[in-house]
Amino acid sequence: MTTLQRRPLPAQLRDQIWQTVQQGHYRPGDRLPSEQELTAQFGVSRATVREALKIMEDEHLILCRHGVGRYVAPAIAGIYSDAINNLKSVTELAADLAISLSTRVLSLREELPDELVQSRLSLQPGAAVVILERMRLAQDEPVIYSVDHFARAIVVGALSPQVFEGSLLALMENSWNVRLAYSRAVISAVNLGAQLSERIEVPDCVPWILMEQVNYDAHDRPVLYSRDYHRGDKFQFHALRRRRQ
Questions:
Q1: Do 133 and 106 form a contact (C-beta atoms < 8 A)?
Q2: What is the enclosing helix (H) or strand (E) of 198?
Q3: Domain ranges of the chain
Q4: What is the mean pLDDT of each run of 10 residues along the chain (245 residues)?
Q5: Which fold has domain 80-238?
Q6: 16 vs 219: CA distance, rounded Å
C-alpha cells in the first residue's frame, strides 16, 4: 500500500478501496470482497479494513447488509462523486474518479492584482500575479471551469500555455519547489451568467458548484488563490461529519 504522510491508515485504505470502485471493478449494487479478502489484498490488518469500511458506510458509499456483506451503494447516473476532505488537483480528482479529462487553456496573463487577489495572496504592492483560466472537458463536454491566481515571482521559466495543460499543483511542487500543505475553502452554488456560459459553450441554465480556496505552503504562506467551478449536474461532493463530543 502506498503510504501518504499525515493520513491515518484506514483513510488511506478507504481511498484505495473506493478507487477500485471508480475504476469500474465494482458497479453500484455489487458485493465487495469480505474483510478477510480485503486484508489479504491490501496487506493490512483486519481492524484497519473494518475501520476503512466503516468510513465508507458513514459516507454512504457502501451499504452493510448484516449477515450478507457490504455492497456498493446505488449511484446517480452520470454523476461524479468524490470526498471533499482531501486537497487534490483536478488532475488527481480525475484519476481518482477514473475519468479522462482534456485541458483547454483559455487565457494566461500577467498583471497587477486587484485588491481581493492581493489580499488573498498577501502580496506586497506592485507584485505581479499570473492569472490562468482553463476549461476541463470530459468526452469533449465542458465539466470544470477554473481561474487560478499565483505570484509571478514563484514561477520558474517562461509563461507558456502548453506548460499549464497538466496539473498545476504538480507543476508547483515538482518544478517550482512550492510545497502545498493545506487550503481554506468556501463552497457555494453559483450561476456563471449568460456571457461566460456562452463563451465556454455551456447552457446558461446549468448549475455550478464553486470551490473558492486559498492554498498554503508548509510555512503557512498563501501561494495559490483558485476558483474552481464544477458542473452541478455532473459532480457531487461528500464529507464525513462527526458530531462534536
A1: yes
A2: helix 194-199
A3: 9-72, 80-238
A4: 62 89 80 94 95 86 84 64 74 74 94 97 97 93 95 94 92 94 94 92 91 95 96 81 71
A5: Chorismate lyase (3.40.1410)
A6: 29
